[in-house]
């Protein structure tokens, strides 16, 4: 398996869960956060192996060829605009959703802005990047433990076919999920509909954030 330099913008539940598994898989992970001196960043430093870097978004991006976006949705536009040069030509995975944290669950209804993804922003400011949509459609708990009664959950994603797709599938596999490609970026709404389906069951029908993921049955 190849090892990569991965910049993760955001070290909340999503960034830290994926970053920890990718570090264990042998990748060099560099987190970029708003405040690298915060208590949360300090805690992460203590919990992580010595090879893990935690700094500003610019410092993190300078250390990564692959970028995972994992900050609150409302921060993405400014982050991407400010760091456009550092993002362009890279392989970018957008795990962010244009949601206000906790609001959808608390209100018991879908309160998302449309679209959920930041594809238009990324294509505007990083036109040469290879962009994938992945890791946005389940709660972080599914990434921490993707096995449901002995069955490995599928992770649905989209983005360009080719060499970079192999990399994405390796990274999904290292989270212990099974990758299911839904097509190019023209299929991004299909990926985002997985989140809508997940929220309908896990949040609105109260089946639990930790209890829902999907598997394709085929024969
Ligand atoms: N939580 C989930 O289960 C889940 C599931 C799927 C997708 N998502 C999506 O993934 C994204 C991350 O969610 P999350 O719950 O993991 O964390 P979050 O609470 O949305 O984000 C926290 C992280 O983002 C950093 N951050 C905030 N503003 C920033 C800025 N302007 N520049 C750089 N870093 C900034 C914070 O840094 P500081 O600590 O320094 O403030 C912190 O590390 C969101 O878009 C969310 O919709 C979340």
Task: Describe the secondary structure blueprint for this structure.
Blueprint (H helix, E strand, L loop, with lengths): L4 E5 L3 H12 L3 E5 L6 H9 L5 E3 L1 H6 L3 E4 L6 H7 L1 H4 L3 E4 L8 H5 L11 H7 L4 E4 L6 H5 L2 E2 L2 E2 L1 E4 L5 H11 L4 E4 L6 H17 L15
Parallel strand pairs: 1-2, 1-4, 2-3, 4-5, 5-6, 9-10
Antiparallel strand pairs: 7-8
The chain binds NADP nicotinamide-adenine-dinucleotide phosphate.
The site of NADP nicotinamide-adenine-dinucleotide phosphate has 28 residues, from helix 1.
Can you describe what's shown?
By secondary structure, the protein is of the alpha/beta class. The chain has one domain (5-204): NAD(P)-binding Rossmann-like Domain (Rossmann fold). The chain contains ten helices and ten strands. It has helices at residues 13-24, 39-47, 57-62, 76-82, 84-87, 103-107, 119-125, 140-144, 163-173, 188-204; strands at residues 5-9, 28-32, 53-55, 66-69, 91-94, 130-133, 147-148, 151-152, 154-157, 178-181. The strands form three sheets. A six-stranded parallel β-sheet has the order 3-2-1-4-5-6, sandwiched between helices. A hairpin with a 2-residue loop joins strand 7 and strand 8. The mean pLDDT is 96. The protein binds NADP nicotinamide-adenine-dinucleotide phosphate (NAP). NADP nicotinamide-adenine-dinucleotide phosphate (NAP) binds next to helix 1. Pfam families: F420_oxidored. InterPro entries: NAD(P)-bd_dom_sf (IPR036291), P5C_Rdtase_cat_N (IPR028939), STEAP_metalloreductase (IPR051267). This is Pyrroline-5-carboxylate reductase catalytic N-terminal domain-containing protein.
């Amino acid at each position: 398996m190849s090892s990569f330099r991965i910049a993760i913008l955001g070290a909340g539940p999503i960034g830290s869960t994926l970053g920890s598994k990718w570090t264990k898989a042998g990748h060099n992970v560099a987190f970029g956060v708003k405040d690298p001196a915060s208590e949360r960043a300090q805690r992460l430093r203590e919990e992580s192996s010595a090879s893990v870097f935690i700094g500003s978004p610019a410092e993190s991006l300078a250390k990564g060829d692959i970028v995972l976006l994992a900050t609150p949705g409302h921060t993405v536009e400014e982050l991407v605009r400010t760091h456009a040069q550092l993002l362009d030509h890279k392989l970018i995975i957008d795990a962010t959703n244009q949601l206000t944290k906790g609001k959808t669950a608390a209100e018991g209804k879908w309160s998302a802005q449309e679209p959920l993804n930041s594809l238009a922003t990324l294509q505007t400011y990083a036109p040469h990047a290879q962009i994938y949509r992945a890791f946005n459609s389940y709660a972080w708990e599914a990434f921490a433990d993707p096995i449901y009664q002995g069955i490995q959950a599928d992770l649905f994603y989209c983005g360009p076919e080719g060499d970079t797709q192999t990399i994405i599938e390796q990274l999904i596999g290292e989270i212990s999920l099974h990758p299911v490609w839904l097509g190019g970026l023209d299929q991004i709404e299909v990926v985002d509909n997985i989140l809508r389906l997940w929220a309908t069951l896990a949040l609105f029908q109260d089946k639990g954030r930790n209890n829902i993921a999907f598997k394709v049955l085929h024969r």
